[in-house]
Amino acid sequence: MGTWGEAYLTRLRGCAARMGSELAEITDRDRAVRLVEPDARTVEEGFGDGTLSMLSAGRFRTLDPRQSTVTLVSSDPVRPRWEALPHLAAYVELIRAGFPDEAVRFATPDSELGLDLAAVNDEGQVLLLGAARAEPLELAKLEALVPTFEGDRVQAGRLVPGREAQLLAHQLWVTRAPYLWLVAAGARRLFRVRYGRTIKLAQVRVLPMPEDLWPFGFGGPTPRIALAEPEAVAG
Fold first, then answer.
1. Is the pLDDT of residue 175 over 60?
2. All residues at 6 or more sequence positions from 70 whose CB lies less than 8 Å from its CB, including other chains
3. 73, 117, 149, 175: which could form a disulfide with 58 (CB 3.0–4.6 Å)?
4. Whole-number pLDDT of residue 53
5. What is the average pLDDT across 20-26?
6. Of 233 and 215, which is predicted with more confidence?
7. Superkingdom of the source (predicted)?
8. CB 177: neighbour CB atoms within 10 A?
9. Measured on CA atoms in the order 112, 50, 186, 104, is the torsion positive or negative?
10. Rounded Cα distance, 33 and 35, in Å
């Protein structure tokens, strides 16, 4: 682990101290798998340039004014929320790539499907949906399971094995996002999404350019996510 990882750990320890506690032990596996230097650097630079800002008790803000409350640490005991590191890094990457500040939603509230990340147009239609997890292995599971859910069977309230993949499939069916971006520690996987009887994911190499997603620019305030229940899809 390098300088940026240590800086991020110092930030987490500061969060714990402000909560009147100590940060739980950071294991060798945490350092090797979850605390990756490039993500830590991106996040720390994001705090440095104002893209991200700390609040109290481990809470932070992005540039999304509609963001739900999110923390860098969990309490009792205080330990890192490891998925927050790649989640924040991916957000900063989108802003650096030229995605309009007002168009990038972060940690949307439950009324807007609880999306980890979303790039939207002026009408709130999701153009790119992002899902953040702590470790790359979790992304492989999502990639494998999301296409197994048929459109007319995906309902958020119906629990089945692989529920995280079910919920992500539900988010995709409701938003009909054309791109899915899976992010984890040191890992990014981008897919073009096709909707038929099931979801089909075709991996692509690079993020779409902002001018391709917003050919006429982006104006106005940050929109809410446009929701529409998916129609049943014929077999």
1. yes
2. 59, 60, 84, 106, 107
3. 73
4. 97
5. 94
6. 215
7. Bacteria
8. 22
9. positive
10. 6
Supply the angle between the helices 37-49 and 3-18 in degrees, to the nearest 10.
60
Residue type, 52: L
From 31, 28, 38, 30, select the one nearest 4 (Cα to Cα).
38
CA distance 30 to 8: 13
How confident is residue 25, by pLDDT bands cut at 50, 70 and 90?
very high
Tell me which amino acid residue 233 is: V
pLDDT-derived band at 65 (thresholds 50, 70, 90) equals: very high
Within its chain, how far is the Cα of 1 from the centroid? 24
* Confidence at residue 232, expressed as pLDDT on a 0 to 100 scale: 44
Residues whose CB is less than 8 angstroms from the CB of residue 182 and which lie 6 or more positions away in sequence, other chains included? 130, 131, 133, 139, 142, 143, 188, 189, 190, 191
Q: 176: Cβ–Cβ under 8 A, 6 or more apart, which residues?
A: 125, 126, 195, 228, 230
Specify which residues 193 forms β-bridges with.
201
Angle (deg, nearest 10), helices 84-96 and 37-49: 60
